[in-house]
Design a protein that fits this description.
764 residues, Beta-Lactamase, GMP Synthetase, Chain A, domain 3, seven-stranded mixed sheet, globular
């Protein structure tokens, strides 16, 4: 018995000596490491030899982003993982508090809450890798009390907690790492260049970087361009390297950046191109600008003297991107004048202008104001905007110009506050409105001819706002091309049912939805399908946005009494087969349309309602006879436009069970189960990522989501009985109708959009 005890003690002693040897070896290897990458990636196996465990992760601190990060190899590629420094994750908690942790089961929420009430374990990494985390031993890496990183050991072989001895070993290794990381920083500071990040991430070797300086000089290329061409370094990695070196943001060129007209008016294009800097925006009184070298003190002093302020925030950009920004800010598609030239002319006309005075220093007849308004309209067309918003801002003393693109508003540029009245007056003159009336709203239209002889029409509304100023909103009514019906993005059922009803000889088809939801586009697609020489088709529109050969299209003029109802009455005397009326705004138009459909004509129209069943109730509430309406109705198509994911960069992901349940409940649990989309590891959804093609938004373009209610015999009986919206919806769904929300959810599973965008436009 005694011999057995002695053998056990000898065995334990030998094991401890072996571990001590491993600790000594790994200490030497850590101190001998040439760069951060060796410490984070290459030394992991050596560290793990001191522990009876599965894996080890070493995190470093990123002070700028308040995160910790680590690197790991995927094949031959070095990948990065980042964790915020807060108490919501285990590694983040250790970094935030400086406390070591020894966790027996990462999935045991009670154990985690005993450490900190905010603490939780993110299971996404386990799901992605198929590996289950259980035990975690983590220690902060410190040097003289300053956090340098975190070391984390995962999954003790054989189960159970990590021992006190193992905690001690980890603390020893953490102390050694603290000294090594401090020395690496000191070494990096001695030889630091703006490309050191590339070397530390093993994207470039030291000797390659050293040679690149001379080779780039010989080829007369910038270092950045040479590295990207010769060594295939990505622009994103160059940007990360610059951010680490300059301690600021890296800005890439984007033509979606707001043109800062008020900041550019005293700056010359040639000067900015030569000096390689340009302002981007003014936020909370601080001017944000990009420069090729934010560490150049002489250039910073020169910039601050020129701008007459010390409140400047510097970010870095590649020289070619700075040039692109300057060219973009100073370009003008309609003539040789640039935005700075325009604002400069205005400034020269009135050097004494005081922006705080309520006196109009410039007038709407100034040629520079005309050029400025033309530029705003032309640029809106070039960017596919649907609306232009001119917004004088009393608080910030400027005029903001915003464009609505793909359904969302975004700033385009700012104009000095002193030009507010002149810009608004110029738009009023173009719209034939009274420039002396400023206290009541006005409506008008502009016929505008673009370069290339293209003519567009704009619907203009002026509205007085707080501060004795006026806002202007201009809707661009561009002449569009007729799309085919199959390009509407309808489901198979909706497409076949709609095709069936539009080929009927008579009856009424309604397309409903809010303003800007694509109703006119869908109506013209339907008319295109039936537009043949055998059919006489009349349309009454306000305005005529889409022209189509073969249709007889009429522009209504409500101001002279030629409204939709009057147009429809005249059509009935002009031998029609098909009538399309822009909108059923009142009882008379709706009544005339129903009568026309009952007397052998196919009638198309629109309404502003939320859903297909609600349209029926709205018309009945107008006073329409339910018997006539039931006989006339063929179908009601409700639709919305939803932003679509960028095809270049959208990515698949595995949704959480919570997200899956939310989608199922929104669809309707019983209906969703019939789709047979179970929650398993193969389930994939799509989400935005962001790339240069979509300006980092992850979205590009829009498509329709639809709800088609067909006028079946059962629906007609419910109309005659004045049934509720809920009764009609339930019957329509039972007969095969998918609601707007359901159609949107199916488009999520098909990869066209994501659930958040569907939720933005669909209620039920």
């Amino acid at each position: 018995m005694l011999n057995k005890v002695q053998d056990t003690q000898i065995s334990e002693l030998e094991e401890k000596l072996l571990i001590r040897k491993h600790l000594h070896d790994i200490t030497n290897r850590i101190h001998a490491a040439q760069n951060i990458k060796q410490i984070l990636v290459d030394l992991k196996d050596g560290i793990l030899s001191c522990f009876n465990a599965h894996s080890v992760t070493i995190y470093l601190v990123d002070q700028i982003k308040d995160e910790i990060y680590s690197m790991f190899l995927v094949g031959s590629q070095l990948q990065e993982i980042r964790v915020p420094i807060n108490n919501k994750s285990i590694a983040g908690y250790v970094a935030n508090t400086g406390n070591a942790v020894n966790i027996a089961d990462a999935y045991n929420d009670t154990e985690l809450k005993r450490i900190d009430k905010e603490l939780s374990f993110d299971i996404r990494w386990d799901k992605k890798s198929g590996f289950k985390t259980t035990q975690i031993l983590a220690e902060p890496i410190l040097h003289n009390g300053n956090l340098k990183g975190i070391i984390q050991i995962i999954n003790k072989n054989g189960g159970g907690c990590f021992t006190i001895e193992e905690q001690g070993y980890l603390k020893e290794i953490a102390n050694v790492l603290g000294i090594a990381l401090y020395n690496q920083e000191r070494y990096a500071r001695r030889r630091k260049t703006r490309f050191d990040y590339l070397v530390s991430r093993d994207l470039l070797k030291d000797e390659e970087l050293d040679n690149a300086w001379e080779e780039a000089r010989e080829r007369k290329e910038t270092m950045e361009a040479y590295l990207m061409n010769k060594y295939k370094i990505t622009k994103e990695d160059i940007g990360k390297s610059f951010e680490e070196f300059y301690r600021c943001r890296f800005i890439s060129f984007s033509d979606k950046v707001v043109i800062p007209g008020d900041l550019l008016k005293n700056l010359k294009k040639e000067y900015l191109r030569r000096e390689l800097w340009v302002p981007l925006e003014k936020v909370d009184g601080k001017i944000h600008l990009i420069v090729d070298d934010p560490n150049n003190i002489l250039k910073r002093d020169m910039i601050e003297n020129l701008l007459k302020t010390k409140s400047v925030k510097y970010d870095v950009a590649l020289p070619e991107d700075i040039i692109k920004f300057i060219n973009f800010f100073y370009q003008s598609p309609e003539d040789e004048s640039t935005i700075t030239d325009i604002l400069g002319k205005l400034d020269e006309d009135d050097q004494m202008m005081d922006e705080d005075e309520d006196i109009d220093a410039v007038t709407e007849s100034d040629s520079a104001i005309m050029q400025l308004v033309n530029k705003i309209i032309n640029d809106a067309c070039a960017r596919r905007a649907s609306d232009i918003h001119i917004e004088p801002n009393v608080a910030k003393k400027n005029v903001e110009v915003r464009y609505r693109i793909d359904g969302d508003c975004a700033l385009y540029q700012t104009v000095p506050y002193g030009y507010r009245a002149a810009v608004v007056s110029r738009i009023k003159i173009m719209s034939n409105l009274d420039i002396t009336i400023r206290r009541i709203p006005q409506d008008g239209k502009i016929k505008f001819r673009r370069p290339g002889n293209e003519e567009i029409e704009l619907r203009v509304a002026t509205i007085p706002t707080q501060g004795s100023v006026e806002d202007v909103v201009m809707r661009i009514l561009a002449k569009g091309e007729t799309l085919p019906l199959q390009a509407m993005g309808m489901s198979k059922r909706n497409y076949s049912e709609l095709l069936n009803v539009i080929t009927k000889p008579y009856g009424m088809i309604l397309v409903v939805g809010p303003t800007g939801s694509g109703k006119t586009t869908t109506l013209h697609a339907a008319l295109r399908h039936i537009n043949t020489p055998e059919k006489k088709i009349w349309t009454a529109e306000d305005p005529v946005e889409i022209t189509q050969y073969g249709l007889r299209q009429v522009q209504v003029q409500p101001k002279i009494g030629f409204d939709f109802a009057a147009a429809m009455r005249s059509f009935l005397r002009a031998d029609p087969d098909v009538i399309m009326v822009g909108e059923m705004r009142d009882f008379e138009t709706a009544k005339t349309g129903i009568e026309a459909s009952l007397t052998g004509h196919l009638v198309f129209s629109t309404l502003h309602t939320n859903s297909a069943p609600e349209t029926i109730v709205r018309l009945l509430d107008m006073g329409i006879d339910p018997l006539n309406f039931a006989d006339a109705l063929l179908a009601i198509l409700a639709q919305r436009l939803v932003r679509t994911l960028c095809k270049n960069c959208k990515e698949t992901y595995h949704p959480t069970i919570e997200e899956y349940n939310e989608i199922a409940e929104s669809y309707g649990r019983e209906s969703f189960e019939k789709l047979d989309i179970p929650y398993n590891d193969d389930l994939k959804l799509y989400r935005p990522k962001g790339c240069s093609a979509c300006d980092k938004t992850g979205y590009k373009g829009r498509m329709g989501v639809h709800e088609l209610l067909v006028g079946t015999d059962e629906i007609k009986r419910l109309i005659q009985k004045h049934a509720t919206v809920e009764e009609m919806r339930n019957v329509a769904i039972a007969e095969g109708m998918t609601t707007l929300l359901q159609d949107g959810i199916m488009k999520c599973f098909d990869g066209y959009t994501d659930f958040r965008q569907v939720r933005r436009v669909c209620i039920k």
